[in-house]
Amino acid sequence: MAHKPTVLIVDDEPDLVELVKLTLERMNLATAAAGDLATARRLLGEKRFELCLADMRLPDGDGLDLVAWIQQHQPQVPVAVITAHGNVETAVRALKAGAFDFVSKPLDLGVLRRLVAVAIRLGADDGAESARVGPQLLGGSPAMDALRALIARVARSQAPVHISGESGTGKDLVARLIHSSGARREGPFIPVNCGAIPTELMESELFGYKRGSFTGAVSDKQGLVQSAEGGTLFLDEVADLPLHMQVKLLRVIQEKTVRPVGEQREQPIDVRVLSATHKNLASLVQAGKFREDLYYRINVIDIRVPALREHASDIPELAAALLRRLSRRLGGEAPALGEDALAALQDYGFPGNVRELENILERALTLCAGEQIGVADLQLRAAPSGAAAEGDAASIVKAAAAGADTSGSDLGDQLEHIERDAILKALEQTRYNKTAAARLLGITFRALRYKVKKLRIE
Ligand SMILES: Nc1ncnc2c1ncn2[C@@H]1O[C@H](COP(=O)(O)OP(=O)(O)OP(=O)(O)O)[C@@H](O)[C@H]1O
Ligand SMILES: [Mg+2]
Description:
- This protein is α/β, with parallel strands linked by helices.
- It has four domains: 6-125, Rossmann fold; 142-304, P-loop containing nucleotide triphosphate hydrolases (Rossmann fold, 3-Layer(aba) Sandwich); 308-378, Helicase, Ruva Protein, domain 3 (Orthogonal Bundle), CATH 1.10.8.60; 392-454, Orthogonal Bundle (Arc Repressor Mutant, subunit A), CATH 1.10.10.
- Helix content is 47%, strand content 13%.
- It has 20 helices and 16 strands.
- It has helices at 14-26, 37-46, 63-73, 88-97, 109-125, 142-155, 171-180, 199-207, 224-227, 243-254, 281-286, 292-298, 315-330, 339-347, 353-367, 375-378, 392-402, 410-429, 434-441, 445-454, and strands at 6-10, 30-34, 51-55, 57-58, 61-62, 79-83, 101-104, 161-164, 189-193, 232-236, 257-258, 267-268, 272-277, 301-304, 336-337, 372-373.
- The strands form five sheets. A five-stranded parallel β-sheet has the order 2-1-3-6-7, with helices on both faces. Strands 9-10-13-8-14 form a five-stranded parallel β-sheet.
- β4 and β5 (61-62) form a beta hairpin.
- α13 (315-330) packs across α15 (353-367), α18 (410-429) packs across α19 and α19 (434-441) crosses α20.
- Residues 126-131 and 383-409 have low confidence and may be disordered.
- Adenosine-5'-triphosphate binds next to α7 and α15.
């Protein structure tokens, strides 16, 4: 007979155990119960469990001890904790200790059912390394090995993850990989660029609205948060989230509820929250620009993506892979990278990281006449390594912007031409996301808007 997935419930309140049992049995799961830590440890040693649900307060210790014990002795068993209402500190501690999720009391059975469903799927994935499509994290350096291992580990958890790192290091890629290697991979992955949504639209874009809540709200509208139901919400540039939106986001993480604009009631929501920024969130907290409580919650697990110069040994592999990808897009054979060119790349500081490497290679591909890319085709600028992160085109635009008003003169025309090129490239690269393009260029959104108008781009 096939093994029926079994859940171990660790709680000393008989009523609660009964309620959880009934709920799980209706989901066609088997259950076992333990009233204290000692019994729980014994049962875990004797039988196979697909999930352990542990209350925080137990007669002979607390749930955190059990979480730690399971991490050590039975790491394949996902464990979730049941916390007292509003006790988020404990929930955060449990997540850091290795719990994959938490549910708060009084139990919302819908929340419980979803949590259990995710956990059971987690178990079923074991060993069956699913065929993954889409881009992968390349590079055989120790730094990339460690990053891949970390991604695999956090993919099993439901805890919020914050991804930090310089511009162009691969934060976006890391977020997608966490989603696509976890139990939510069949669910949606919803990336939201918090810096790109105008402040006045932010609340309704993120949380949706109820019909009639303001002029123009002719029907209910789902927010981005709701559209991530069952999947992952990726808040990119989370540092740009205005303070009043930070409060609402806190509720999504803490209470697992969301309230659309004009709606009276909170609605339950099941999303995993990932976030990223190239800014230093801790110092923004210090400056009062980012809520400390939210920082603490989105940052339960922190992944730092290293700058390219910190794993420069990956440059040959990355360059070759990127060249193949770029050439495929252009419909030709990938030219080889000359030895001198490769050496120059390995010496270069890459303030714009992997994205800059991509840009350099794309340009080289266009410039290169023969079968081999030479050092001249790379057009590397002499940048001090470790300089402020900015895209490669940035210096050109900045140089142009720094010049006096030269319109009419030859130089002015030339600069305009260069500026237009750089801006178009940045826009294309960011799929016409002006905020991202501006960042890539190292200029403000306003400056970009001005230039776009002035140069009559679009
Ligand atoms: N290790 C890697 N292997 C393969 N591709 C990579 C790697 N790191 C980054 N890339 C590629 O580099 C480009 C930039 O990465 P990504 O967009 O994820 O950066 P980011 O950190 O989100 O940048 P930003 O801060 O500007 O948003 C992407 O095309 C990504 O696929
Ligand atoms: Mg990004």
